[in-house]
Amino acid sequence: MKSTLKMLGIVLVASTALATAAQAQRDYGSTSQATQNPQSRQPQQQEEKKPAKGGGATVTLGDKKIKISPEFAKAYQDLLAAVSANDATISAKSQAAHAAAKTPEEHYLAAQLDLKAAVAAKNDAGIGTALETMIGSGLLDQQQLPAAYLSLGKTRYNLKQFPQAATAFEKVLQLDPNNAEAKTLLDQTHVVGAANPAEAVALLQKSIAQQSAGGAKPPEDLYKRALSTAYKAKLPAAVDISRDWVSKYPTPGNWSDAIKIYRSLHDTDDQATLDLLRLARAAGAMKDEADYDRYAYAALTKGYPGEAKTVLEEGVKAGVVDPNKTPFKEEIAQAKQKAAGEEATLDNAAKSAIAGGTAKSALANGDLLYGYGQYAKAAEVYRATLKKPGADASLVNLHLGMALARSGDKAGAAAALNAVTGPRADIAKYWLAYVSTQS
């Protein structure tokens, strides 16, 4: 694992496996320092009596005195000498020591020396094997295991053994659920080790679900990594991830990106474009000239000049729209001309829509009211529209939910938006995400 990993535009900084293993060697592999304190972080061993040929010895591991066999004592002494001299016999001496070892404690002592030799040789495979032996001995306590598994995971990642690396990082999180480094590295391992983007996204979504347990909020980088992977591969999952992302991190910039991601992955018609831009406006996510131009154009095309006029005025006030610049100069003039006197007719139009008329004309009147910010009255018209023959229930419920969301009726908005089916359901779900973030 390189010191600095650049992936999907997100910079992740992690210690190299070698550096981590060197730390692990210091933590778990000391062969000379006595352990005086039973509460010490790691079970280091002290030679109470130097092993001699034909005789055993007693060593201290943590707060326990361990008797090692004469056979192991000799093999251990030979391995210690080889490691200290860094000679060519280390591998053979290690095999002999483990062959002589009959207890977990003896295997642990030999593995300490294996780790020291592997670190010196920059041998990732040897580091991993030594760490696995030390973990498998059962001599590390619950406080030590997370660091040991983290070191092991980084080493396996270095060796491109991604499933094994993921297993090690998952063990860390089982022992220490709030370990941020392990969470990041596990997600990274899923992406790098996946056979294809779809698999990577599925694994990242699984991580999001796991880290959402109990109402927790996964880190935003996890959403960004999943969304970036899905979007680059043009996967449908990008839409679901973007909605989940903005429901947890509803900043104007995030809303702008999420809506643009949806529009770039779908060929939206004028109505869908307008409903998405209405959402961007509600979320404070109108960012640039293109947003205001598209919004004004869509509103004028659909026959809502008053809404276009209001939006363009907001753009001018925000300093984003230059009223003397094309196409805004023309749009402003057109909106003013067509909207002249329109607002004064809204009350009568609403009464007529509720009392009679077709579903199509009633919907249009509800949308006029919406465009002028009269959300509660628009909702009343939309409800009446649903009862008229030929009403497009999904479209009307979508607009009803939008109006109720803007009027502050979260429960009513959610009920209407959840009733939307078919191709408009995705847009309704974005509005549901917006509703969920409103206090």
Categorize the overall geometry.
elongated
Report strand order across the widest sheet: 3-4-5
Provide the β-strand percentage band: under 5%
Average predicted local confidence, pLDDT:
87
- Termini separation comes to 43 Å
Number of DSSP-assigned strands = 5
Contiguous low-pLDDT stretches (5 residues minimum) are 1-54
Sheet having the most strands: 3 strands, antiparallel
SS class: mainly alpha
- Tell me the helix content: 55-70%
Q: Specify Rg, calculated over alpha carbons.
A: 33 Å
Count of discrete alpha- or pi-helical segments spanning 4 or more residues: 22
Order of helices and strands: EEHEEEHHHHHHHHHHHHHHHHHHHHH
Number of domains: 3
Protein name: Tetratricopeptide repeat protein
Keywords: Repeat, Signal, TPR repeat
InterPro entries: TPR-like_helical_dom_sf, TPR_2, TPR_rpt
Please describe the structure with a list of short key phrases separated by commas or semicolons.
elongated, Serine Threonine Protein Phosphatase 5, Tetratricopeptide repeat, 439 residues, 5 strands, 22 helices, three-stranded antiparallel beta sheet, 3 domains
